[in-house]
C-alpha cells in the first residue's frame, strides 16, 4: 500500500529532466535560497525537511530545488530514495542531497559527493572542522569497529543525529532522527544539544 501511495505521489509531481539543470538555470529565488542556506543544519533536521514528512511534503518544502528521483531507488530494507536535490554546496564541496523514506515517511537525509568524483581525505578533515564550528563541538570520531578506510564523526543535535563519513573517496553527511536512548541531554553551558558518541 505504501509503495502504491509513493508511486501515486511521484506520478502526480512535476517531473524534472534526468540531468541536473545548471545552477544558472534555476529561478532567482531558488538560487538565492540555495546560496544563503548552509546545508550543515545544527538543528538535527536538514533545512526545511522534518522527520516524518511525506514525499509530497518534502517536494513542497524545497520548491525549485527538490525533484522526484528518476528512477527511485528501492532499498533492501524496504526504504525508498524518492527525492533529490543535486548540486548542494557544503563549505565548497559539491554534494547531492537524497531523501530516504521508510513507510512513506522521511527517515534520512543524505548529502553525498557526486558519482564518479574522488574526494580526498583532507576534504573530510576540512568539513569535520566546518561542522564542528556549526554544531558547537568536535563530534565523536568512530573508533570501534573501524573498517578499512572508513572515517566517521557523529554529532547528536537537538532534533536528530548528523554523521560525516568518508570511505574510499566518497563523502557523506547523513542526518537521521535519534533512536530511543540516543538523544543526549543538553551540554552544560551549551543549550540545545550535546556532541556525543557514535551509535
Largest sheet: 8 strands, antiparallel
Number of H/I helices: 4
- The proportion of residues in beta strands is 25-35%
Spatial ordering of strands, largest sheet? 1-2-3-4-8-7-6-5
CATH architecture designation of the largest domain: 2-Layer Sandwich
Distance from first to last alpha carbon: 32 Å
Overall morphology? globular
Number of domains: 2
Q: Using only CA atoms, what is the Rg?
A: 17 Å
* Derived structural class: alpha+beta
What top-tier CATH class of the largest domain fits best?
Alpha Beta
**From N to C, what is the helix and strand string?**
HHHEEEEHEEEE
- CATH topology name of the largest domain, in short, is Beta-lactamase Inhibitory Protein, Chain:B, domain 1
Helix content: 10-25%
Global mean pLDDT? 75
Point out poorly predicted stretches: 1-36, 184-199
Could you tell me the number of beta strands? 8
Features:
199 residues; Beta-lactamase Inhibitory Protein, Chain:B, domain 1; globular; alpha+beta; eight-stranded antiparallel sheet; 4 helices; 8 strands; disordered C terminus; single chain
Provide a descriptive summary of the structure in words.
The chain is built from four helices and eight strands. With 199 residues, the protein is of the alpha+beta class. The protein folds into two domains: 2-11 and 38-112, Beta-lactamase Inhibitory Protein, Chain:B, domain 1 (2-Layer Sandwich); 121-176, no CATH class. It is globular and about 35 Å long. The model is unreliable at 1-36 and 184-199 (pLDDT under 50).
Summarize this structure briefly.
The chain has 199 residues and is of the alpha+beta class.
Amino acid at each position: 500500500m505504501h509503495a502504491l501511495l509513493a508511486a501515486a505521489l511521484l506520478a502526480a509531481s512535476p517531473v524534472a529532466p534526468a540531468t541536473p539543470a545548471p545552477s544558472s538555470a534555476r529561478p532567482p529565488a531558488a538560487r538565492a535560497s540555495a546560496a544563503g542556506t548552509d546545508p550543515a543544519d545544527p538543528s538535527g533536521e536538514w533545512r526545511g525537511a522534518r522527520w516524518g514528512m511525506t514525499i509530497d511534503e518534502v517536494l513542497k518544502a524545497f520548491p525549485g530545488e527538490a525533484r522526484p528521483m528518476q528512477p527511485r531507488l528501492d532499498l533492501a530494507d524496504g526504504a525508498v530514495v524518492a527525492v533529490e536535490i543535486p548540486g548542494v554546496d557544503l563549505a565548497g564541496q559539491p554534494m547531492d542531497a537524497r531523501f530516504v523514506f521508510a513507510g512513506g515517511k522521511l527517515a534520512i537525509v543524505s548529502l553525498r559527493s557526486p558519482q564518479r568524483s574522488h574526494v580526498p581525505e583532507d576534504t573530510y578533515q576540512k568539513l569535520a572542522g566546518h561542522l564542528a564550528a556549526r554544531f558547537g563541538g568536535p563530534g565523536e570520531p568512530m573508533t570501534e569497529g573501524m573498517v578499512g578506510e572508513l572515517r566517521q564523526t557523529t554529532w547528536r543535535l537537538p532534533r536528530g543525529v548528523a554523521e560525516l563519513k568518508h570511505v574510499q573517496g566518497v563523502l557523506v553527511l547523513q542526518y537521521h532522527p535519534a533512536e530511543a536512548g540516543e538523544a543526549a541531554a543538553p551540554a552544560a553551558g551549551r543549550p540545545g544539544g550535546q556532541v556525543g558518541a557514535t551509535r
